[in-house]
Amino acid sequence: MAEMAYLKALVYGRVQGVFFRYFVRNIARNLELKGYVRNLPGGNAIEVQAEGNKQQLEKLIEQLKIGPPGAQVKEVEINWSAYSGQFTTFSIS
């Protein structure tokens, strides 16, 4: 059985107004992850909460560090937690 996990990521830089949330949603859905992505106040950060297979979450983190064309990722903060099963899909909030 695959190890299941939950992560909260904060991505800083030029990450708003560059389709970053759609980028994250599409990758997360392709990786069969559940959770959400949203812009944070201030215009220079987004929050991602995702859960699922830990290996798939690590693939998501690699993509968060790159971002879509037009984005400039300065920093990615990751916090791991236990899998909760609280999400049914991956959405943009």
Question: What does it look like?
Answer:
It is a single chain. The protein is of the alpha+beta class and 93 residues long. It has a domain at 1-46 and 54-71: Alpha-Beta Plaits, CATH 3.30.70. Helix content is 26%, strand content 43%. It is built from two helices and five strands. The protein has helices at 20-30, 54-66; strands at 4-14, 34-39, 45-53, 72-82, 90-92. The protein has a five-stranded mixed beta sheet with strand order 4-1-3-2-5, with helices on one face. The chain is globular.
Q: Shape, please?
A: globular
Number of strands: 5
CATH fold topology of the domain at 1-46 and 54-71 = Alpha-Beta Plaits
Arithmetic mean pLDDT = 97
Percent helix among the residues?
A: 25-40%
Structure summary:
This protein has 93 residues and is of the alpha+beta class.
Describe the secondary structure blueprint for this structure.
Blueprint: E1 4-14, H1 20-30, E2 34-39, E3 45-53, H2 54-66, E4 72-82, E5 90-92
Parallel strand pairs: 2-5
Antiparallel strand pairs: 1-3, 1-4, 2-3
Features of the shown structure:
single chain; 93 residues; alpha+beta; Alpha-Beta Plaits; 5-stranded mixed β-sheet; 5 strands; globular
